[in-house]
Amino acid sequence: MKSPFRLVCLVAIIAALIVVGVSFARADQSVAAASPIYGVTVPRGYRQWELIAPALEAAPLNELRAVVGNPVAIRAYRNGVPSFPDGTILVKLAWKQMPSAEFAPATVPGQATTVQVMVKDSKKYAATGGWGFGRFVDGQPVDEAQHRTCFACHEARATAQRDYVFTRYAP
Description:
Blueprint: H1 2-32, E1 50-57, E2 63-69, H2 71-79, E3 89-99, E4 107-120, E5 131-137, E6 140-141, H3 144-147, H4 150-157
Antiparallel strand pairs: 1-2, 2-3, 3-4, 4-5, 5-6
């Protein structure tokens, strides 16, 4: 009697491991989806990176935002370099603003809207100021037309003197 019971338990454990493995594989696929034009992906572990600065985006977007950076980005910000070195990665997280149900009149994050990524590689992205861009909704990159607007916006508003980066470090 013990052998059939052990066999059933072993089969159940293997089935559970397969289900867990398939779930992780699906999650990894969404992380690995690359942006059109630039081939930028959402970096693994970015939620553990240091905060560079928060931001409040007014109407019509009405978003709360936070920009985080990899260790290369954080060193560059802290050292006040005028141009970010290759290997810099900046990630902007955005949420719709909503009033707090508990602490009026506070505003809190609501539904997540986008994850936006900038990767510095001066050779690969020479035509766009050294930066590659990715904009993701629910882990998937948005269409090519939206990605075509990334550098144009940064070039017009952030300028080369700021290395096309909007966010200033908030220590």
